[in-house]
Amino acid sequence: MNPTSSALPGWSHVYSGKVRDLYVPEQASGLDDAAAVLVVASDRVSAFDHVLEPGIPGKGELLTTLSLWWFDQLADVPNHLLADHRLDGERVVDDIPDAVAGRAMLVKPLDMYPIECVVRGYLTGSGWSEYQATGRVCGIPLPAGLANGDRLPEPIYTPAWKAPLGQHDENISFERTVELVGQDAATQLRALSLAIYTEAAAIAERRGVIIADTKFEFGRDRGTETITLADEVLTSDSSRYWDAAAWAAGATPEERMASFDKQIVRDWLAANWDKNGVPPELPANIVERTAARYRELLERLTGE
Ligand code: ATP
Ligand code: MG
Protein backbone atom coordinates (compact mmCIF):
# COMPACT_ATOMS: atom_id res chain seq x y z
CA MET A 1 0.00 0.00 0.00
CA ASN A 2 1.35 3.37 -0.97
CA PRO A 3 1.39 5.62 2.10
CA THR A 4 -0.01 8.55 0.13
CA SER A 5 -3.18 6.72 -0.98
CA SER A 6 -5.88 6.34 1.63
CA ALA A 7 -8.29 3.54 2.51
CA LEU A 8 -11.69 3.76 0.80
CA PRO A 9 -14.50 1.62 2.26
CA GLY A 10 -15.65 -0.98 -0.30
CA TRP A 11 -12.55 -0.60 -2.45
CA SER A 12 -9.12 -2.25 -2.48
CA HIS A 13 -6.05 -0.26 -3.45
CA VAL A 14 -4.21 -2.03 -6.30
CA TYR A 15 -1.70 0.43 -7.75
CA SER A 16 -0.18 3.85 -7.28
CA GLY A 17 1.60 5.67 -10.06
CA LYS A 18 3.38 8.93 -9.57
CA VAL A 19 0.12 10.88 -9.58
CA ARG A 20 -2.83 8.52 -9.46
CA ASP A 21 -4.08 5.73 -7.23
CA LEU A 22 -6.12 2.83 -8.61
CA TYR A 23 -8.75 0.90 -6.65
CA VAL A 24 -10.99 -2.05 -7.51
CA PRO A 25 -14.22 -3.19 -5.79
CA GLU A 26 -13.22 -5.19 -2.69
CA GLN A 27 -14.79 -8.41 -4.01
CA ALA A 28 -12.37 -8.41 -6.97
CA SER A 29 -8.96 -9.99 -6.49
CA GLY A 30 -7.15 -7.44 -8.67
CA LEU A 31 -7.24 -5.48 -11.94
CA ASP A 32 -7.61 -8.71 -13.94
CA ASP A 33 -11.04 -9.71 -12.68
CA ALA A 34 -12.43 -6.30 -11.68
CA ALA A 35 -15.58 -4.99 -13.33
CA ALA A 36 -14.60 -1.40 -12.65
CA VAL A 37 -11.57 0.60 -11.64
CA LEU A 38 -11.61 3.78 -9.59
CA VAL A 39 -8.86 6.11 -10.80
CA VAL A 40 -8.17 8.74 -8.15
CA ALA A 41 -6.02 11.73 -9.06
CA SER A 42 -4.00 13.10 -6.16
CA ASP A 43 -2.46 16.56 -5.79
CA ARG A 44 1.00 15.01 -6.25
CA VAL A 45 3.17 16.65 -8.89
CA SER A 46 6.03 14.91 -10.65
CA ALA A 47 8.86 16.27 -12.77
CA PHE A 48 11.84 14.46 -14.28
CA ASP A 49 10.18 11.25 -12.99
CA HIS A 50 10.33 12.33 -9.32
CA VAL A 51 7.33 13.04 -7.12
CA LEU A 52 7.88 16.45 -5.52
CA GLU A 53 6.87 18.00 -2.22
CA PRO A 54 4.53 19.64 -1.53
CA GLY A 55 1.62 18.82 -3.85
CA ILE A 56 -0.33 21.43 -5.82
CA PRO A 57 -3.63 22.12 -4.00
CA GLY A 58 -6.65 21.31 -6.19
CA LYS A 59 -4.56 19.60 -8.89
CA GLY A 60 -6.25 16.20 -8.61
CA GLU A 61 -9.70 17.71 -9.07
CA LEU A 62 -8.51 19.86 -11.94
CA LEU A 63 -6.96 16.89 -13.79
CA THR A 64 -10.13 14.89 -13.38
CA THR A 65 -12.39 17.75 -14.48
CA LEU A 66 -10.23 18.38 -17.56
CA SER A 67 -10.19 14.69 -18.51
CA LEU A 68 -13.95 14.38 -18.18
CA TRP A 69 -14.47 17.57 -20.19
CA TRP A 70 -12.23 16.31 -22.99
CA PHE A 71 -13.82 12.84 -23.06
CA ASP A 72 -17.11 14.66 -23.49
CA GLN A 73 -15.73 16.86 -26.33
CA LEU A 74 -14.32 13.78 -28.07
CA ALA A 75 -17.59 11.88 -27.89
CA ASP A 76 -16.92 9.93 -31.11
CA VAL A 77 -13.78 8.28 -29.69
CA PRO A 78 -14.39 5.06 -27.66
CA ASN A 79 -13.18 5.76 -24.11
CA HIS A 80 -12.84 3.90 -20.83
CA LEU A 81 -15.45 5.81 -18.81
CA LEU A 82 -18.18 3.51 -17.58
CA ALA A 83 -21.48 4.20 -19.27
CA ASP A 84 -23.20 5.70 -16.25
CA HIS A 85 -20.43 8.24 -15.79
CA ARG A 86 -21.74 11.54 -17.01
CA LEU A 87 -20.95 15.18 -16.66
CA ASP A 88 -24.39 16.21 -15.50
CA GLY A 89 -23.61 19.25 -13.45
CA GLU A 90 -22.88 16.88 -10.61
CA ARG A 91 -19.65 15.47 -11.78
CA VAL A 92 -19.83 11.80 -11.08
CA VAL A 93 -21.83 8.69 -10.46
CA ASP A 94 -23.12 7.49 -7.07
CA ASP A 95 -20.54 4.72 -6.76
CA ILE A 96 -17.70 7.16 -6.23
CA PRO A 97 -16.85 7.50 -2.52
CA ASP A 98 -17.43 10.98 -1.07
CA ALA A 99 -13.83 11.13 0.15
CA VAL A 100 -12.58 11.31 -3.46
CA ALA A 101 -15.56 12.94 -5.17
CA GLY A 102 -14.45 15.38 -7.86
CA ARG A 103 -11.07 13.80 -8.37
CA ALA A 104 -12.02 10.24 -9.29
CA MET A 105 -13.21 8.54 -12.46
CA LEU A 106 -14.91 5.19 -12.68
CA VAL A 107 -13.50 3.31 -15.65
CA LYS A 108 -13.47 -0.01 -17.44
CA PRO A 109 -10.29 -2.04 -16.86
CA LEU A 110 -8.50 -2.49 -20.18
CA ASP A 111 -5.46 -4.39 -21.38
CA MET A 112 -3.17 -1.39 -21.72
CA TYR A 113 -0.70 -1.01 -24.59
CA PRO A 114 2.84 -0.36 -23.29
CA ILE A 115 3.12 2.75 -25.44
CA GLU A 116 2.79 6.42 -24.65
CA CYS A 117 1.18 7.78 -27.79
CA VAL A 118 2.76 11.22 -28.02
CA VAL A 119 1.69 13.76 -30.63
CA ARG A 120 3.57 17.00 -31.19
CA GLY A 121 2.21 19.99 -33.06
CA TYR A 122 5.11 22.16 -31.86
CA LEU A 123 8.76 21.39 -31.25
CA THR A 124 10.04 21.56 -27.66
CA GLY A 125 11.09 19.38 -24.71
CA SER A 126 12.61 15.99 -25.57
CA GLY A 127 11.55 16.49 -29.22
CA TRP A 128 13.60 19.69 -29.42
CA SER A 129 16.61 17.96 -27.82
CA GLU A 130 16.42 15.07 -30.26
CA TYR A 131 15.98 17.42 -33.22
CA GLN A 132 19.04 19.46 -32.24
CA ALA A 133 21.14 16.29 -32.05
CA THR A 134 19.84 14.44 -35.13
CA GLY A 135 17.45 16.61 -37.17
CA ARG A 136 14.76 14.00 -36.46
CA VAL A 137 12.27 13.10 -33.74
CA CYS A 138 11.55 9.38 -33.23
CA GLY A 139 12.92 8.69 -36.70
CA ILE A 140 10.80 11.38 -38.39
CA PRO A 141 12.97 13.83 -40.38
CA LEU A 142 12.05 17.50 -39.89
CA PRO A 143 12.91 20.62 -41.89
CA ALA A 144 16.23 22.29 -41.03
CA GLY A 145 16.35 25.56 -39.10
CA LEU A 146 13.48 25.03 -36.65
CA ALA A 147 13.69 26.84 -33.30
CA ASN A 148 12.55 25.79 -29.82
CA GLY A 149 8.77 26.31 -29.68
CA ASP A 150 8.18 26.43 -33.44
CA ARG A 151 5.02 25.06 -34.95
CA LEU A 152 5.66 21.94 -37.01
CA PRO A 153 4.54 21.76 -40.66
CA GLU A 154 2.04 19.11 -39.49
CA PRO A 155 1.53 17.21 -36.22
CA ILE A 156 3.84 14.22 -35.79
CA TYR A 157 3.40 10.97 -33.86
CA THR A 158 6.41 10.37 -31.61
CA PRO A 159 5.69 7.32 -29.44
CA ALA A 160 7.53 6.35 -26.28
CA TRP A 161 7.91 3.00 -24.63
CA LYS A 162 6.10 3.05 -21.28
CA ALA A 163 8.78 2.03 -18.80
CA PRO A 164 7.86 0.18 -15.60
CA LEU A 165 7.62 2.38 -12.47
CA GLY A 166 11.04 3.74 -11.53
CA GLN A 167 12.50 3.62 -15.05
CA HIS A 168 12.52 6.38 -17.64
CA ASP A 169 10.21 6.29 -20.66
CA GLU A 170 12.13 6.06 -23.91
CA ASN A 171 11.34 7.63 -27.30
CA ILE A 172 10.97 4.94 -29.96
CA SER A 173 10.32 4.71 -33.69
CA PHE A 174 6.99 3.70 -35.19
CA GLU A 175 8.66 0.47 -36.37
CA ARG A 176 9.49 -0.37 -32.76
CA THR A 177 5.81 0.05 -31.80
CA VAL A 178 4.96 -2.47 -34.54
CA GLU A 179 7.33 -4.96 -32.87
CA LEU A 180 5.73 -4.27 -29.49
CA VAL A 181 2.00 -4.45 -30.36
CA GLY A 182 1.75 -5.69 -33.98
CA GLN A 183 1.21 -3.87 -37.27
CA ASP A 184 -2.53 -3.54 -36.95
CA ALA A 185 -2.68 -2.07 -33.44
CA ALA A 186 0.38 0.13 -34.04
CA THR A 187 -1.19 1.63 -37.15
CA GLN A 188 -4.49 2.23 -35.38
CA LEU A 189 -2.79 3.83 -32.37
CA ARG A 190 -0.94 6.27 -34.61
CA ALA A 191 -4.03 7.19 -36.66
CA LEU A 192 -6.22 7.63 -33.57
CA SER A 193 -3.60 9.72 -31.76
CA LEU A 194 -3.12 12.09 -34.69
CA ALA A 195 -6.87 12.43 -35.25
CA ILE A 196 -7.63 13.14 -31.59
CA TYR A 197 -4.80 15.66 -31.32
CA THR A 198 -5.94 17.49 -34.43
CA GLU A 199 -9.53 17.71 -33.21
CA ALA A 200 -8.53 18.80 -29.70
CA ALA A 201 -5.94 21.34 -30.89
CA ALA A 202 -8.62 23.04 -33.00
CA ILE A 203 -11.03 23.17 -30.04
CA ALA A 204 -8.33 24.65 -27.80
CA GLU A 205 -7.19 27.15 -30.39
CA ARG A 206 -10.68 28.62 -30.60
CA ARG A 207 -10.26 29.35 -26.88
CA GLY A 208 -6.87 31.01 -27.29
CA VAL A 209 -4.88 28.02 -26.09
CA ILE A 210 -2.21 26.01 -27.93
CA ILE A 211 -1.78 22.31 -27.23
CA ALA A 212 1.93 22.08 -28.08
CA ASP A 213 2.10 18.35 -27.47
CA THR A 214 0.27 15.63 -25.60
CA LYS A 215 0.39 11.99 -24.62
CA PHE A 216 -2.43 9.48 -24.94
CA GLU A 217 -2.68 5.97 -23.54
CA PHE A 218 -4.91 3.33 -25.05
CA GLY A 219 -6.02 -0.13 -24.03
CA ARG A 220 -7.89 -3.02 -25.60
CA ASP A 221 -11.42 -3.71 -24.43
CA ARG A 222 -11.42 -7.20 -22.92
CA GLY A 223 -14.77 -8.09 -24.48
CA THR A 224 -15.04 -6.32 -27.83
CA GLU A 225 -11.26 -5.85 -28.36
CA THR A 226 -11.95 -2.25 -29.42
CA ILE A 227 -8.95 0.05 -29.05
CA THR A 228 -10.12 2.40 -26.34
CA LEU A 229 -8.85 5.79 -25.14
CA ALA A 230 -7.86 5.40 -21.49
CA ASP A 231 -6.00 7.09 -18.66
CA GLU A 232 -6.19 10.87 -18.34
CA VAL A 233 -6.71 12.80 -21.52
CA LEU A 234 -5.36 16.21 -22.54
CA THR A 235 -4.66 17.26 -18.97
CA SER A 236 -2.01 19.74 -17.97
CA ASP A 237 0.07 16.75 -16.78
CA SER A 238 -0.11 14.89 -20.06
CA SER A 239 0.12 17.94 -22.33
CA ARG A 240 1.98 21.18 -22.84
CA TYR A 241 -0.50 24.05 -22.99
CA TRP A 242 0.57 27.53 -24.08
CA ASP A 243 -1.14 30.89 -24.37
CA ALA A 244 -1.78 31.41 -28.10
CA ALA A 245 -1.54 35.22 -27.95
CA ALA A 246 1.78 35.08 -26.08
CA TRP A 247 3.13 32.56 -28.59
CA ALA A 248 2.20 34.76 -31.54
CA ALA A 249 3.64 37.94 -30.00
CA GLY A 250 6.65 36.53 -28.13
CA ALA A 251 10.20 37.19 -29.28
CA THR A 252 12.06 34.75 -27.03
CA PRO A 253 11.34 31.05 -26.37
CA GLU A 254 10.37 31.98 -22.77
CA GLU A 255 7.84 34.56 -23.98
CA ARG A 256 6.42 32.25 -26.64
CA MET A 257 5.96 29.26 -24.34
CA ALA A 258 3.86 30.87 -21.57
CA SER A 259 2.58 27.63 -20.18
CA PHE A 260 -0.53 26.47 -18.35
CA ASP A 261 1.09 23.24 -17.24
CA LYS A 262 3.82 22.10 -14.89
CA GLN A 263 6.58 23.73 -16.95
CA ILE A 264 6.83 26.31 -14.13
CA VAL A 265 7.74 23.41 -11.81
CA ARG A 266 10.15 21.83 -14.32
CA ASP A 267 11.93 25.14 -14.93
CA TRP A 268 12.30 25.89 -11.22
CA LEU A 269 13.60 22.40 -10.55
CA ALA A 270 16.06 22.50 -13.46
CA ALA A 271 17.50 25.74 -12.08
CA ASN A 272 17.68 24.56 -8.46
CA TRP A 273 18.59 20.88 -8.57
CA ASP A 274 21.39 18.89 -10.19
CA LYS A 275 19.12 15.80 -10.59
CA ASN A 276 21.09 13.84 -7.99
CA GLY A 277 19.47 12.53 -4.82
CA VAL A 278 16.22 13.86 -3.41
CA PRO A 279 14.73 16.91 -5.18
CA PRO A 280 14.37 20.08 -3.06
CA GLU A 281 10.99 21.16 -1.72
CA LEU A 282 9.02 23.47 -4.00
CA PRO A 283 8.76 27.04 -2.65
CA ALA A 284 5.28 28.39 -1.87
CA ASN A 285 5.32 30.93 -4.72
CA ILE A 286 6.01 28.20 -7.32
CA VAL A 287 3.19 26.08 -5.90
CA GLU A 288 0.79 29.04 -5.97
CA ARG A 289 1.72 30.15 -9.49
CA THR A 290 1.30 26.61 -10.78
CA ALA A 291 -2.10 26.22 -9.10
CA ALA A 292 -3.25 29.58 -10.48
CA ARG A 293 -2.17 28.72 -14.04
CA TYR A 294 -3.96 25.35 -13.80
CA ARG A 295 -7.17 27.11 -12.73
CA GLU A 296 -6.82 29.62 -15.56
CA LEU A 297 -6.46 26.84 -18.12
CA LEU A 298 -9.65 25.19 -16.91
CA GLU A 299 -11.53 28.51 -17.12
CA ARG A 300 -10.26 29.23 -20.62
CA LEU A 301 -11.15 25.80 -21.96
CA THR A 302 -14.43 25.07 -20.24
CA GLY A 303 -15.58 28.63 -19.65
CA GLU A 304 -16.22 27.78 -15.98
P1 ATP B 1 3.14 8.68 -14.95
O1 ATP B 1 1.88 8.83 -15.74
O2 ATP B 1 3.33 9.78 -13.99
O3 ATP B 1 4.29 8.39 -15.84
P2 ATP B 1 2.15 6.18 -14.15
O4 ATP B 1 1.62 6.14 -15.53
O5 ATP B 1 2.94 5.06 -13.62
O6 ATP B 1 3.03 7.42 -14.02
P3 ATP B 1 -0.33 7.17 -13.03
O7 ATP B 1 -0.57 7.92 -14.28
O8 ATP B 1 -0.23 7.90 -11.76
O9 ATP B 1 0.99 6.33 -13.13
O10 ATP B 1 -1.39 5.99 -12.84
C1 ATP B 1 -2.37 5.62 -13.76
C2 ATP B 1 -2.16 4.17 -14.22
O11 ATP B 1 -3.41 3.61 -14.61
C3 ATP B 1 -1.24 4.08 -15.43
O12 ATP B 1 -0.37 2.99 -15.27
C4 ATP B 1 -2.21 3.79 -16.60
O13 ATP B 1 -1.60 3.08 -17.64
C5 ATP B 1 -3.29 2.98 -15.89
N1 ATP B 1 -4.62 3.00 -16.53
C6 ATP B 1 -5.30 4.08 -16.98
N2 ATP B 1 -6.52 3.75 -17.47
C7 ATP B 1 -6.63 2.40 -17.32
C8 ATP B 1 -7.67 1.44 -17.64
N3 ATP B 1 -8.83 1.80 -18.19
N4 ATP B 1 -7.41 0.13 -17.35
C9 ATP B 1 -6.24 -0.26 -16.77
N5 ATP B 1 -5.24 0.61 -16.45
C10 ATP B 1 -5.42 1.91 -16.72
MG1 MG C 1 0.32 8.04 -16.33
Write the layout of secondary structure elements.
Layout: E1 11-16, E2 20-25, E3 37-41, E4 45-47, E5 50-52, H1 59-73, E6 104-107, E7 111-112, E8 115-122, H2 125-134, E9 136-137, E10 140-141, E11 151-157, E12 160-161, E13 170-171, H3 174-181, H4 183-205, E14 209-220, E15 227-230, E16 239-243, H5 244-249, H6 253-256, H7 263-272, H8 284-302
Features:
304 residues; alpha+beta; Phosphorylase Kinase, domain 1; D-amino Acid Aminotransferase, Chain A, domain 1; 2 domains; 8-stranded antiparallel sheet; 4-stranded antiparallel sheet; 8 helices; 16 strands; 31% helix; globular; binds adenosine-5'-triphosphate; binds magnesium ion; SAICAR_synt/ADE2_N
General description of the model:
By secondary structure, this protein is an alpha+beta fold. It has 8 helices and 16 strands. The protein has helices at residues 59-73, 125-134, 174-181, 183-205, 244-249, 253-256, 263-272, 284-302; strands at 11-16, 20-25, 37-41, 45-47, 50-52, 104-107, 111-112, 115-122, 136-137, 140-141, 151-157, 160-161, 170-171, 209-220, 227-230, 239-243. Magnesium ion binds next to loops. Belongs to the SAICAR synthetase family. It catalyses: 5-amino-1-(5-phospho-D-ribosyl)imidazole-4-carboxylate + L-aspartate + ATP = (2S)-2-[5-amino-1-(5-phospho-beta-D-ribosyl)imidazole-4-carboxamido]succinate + ADP + phosphate + 2 H(+). One of its GO terms (biological process) is 'de novo' IMP biosynthetic process. Keywords: ATP-binding, Ligase, Nucleotide-binding, Purine biosynthesis.
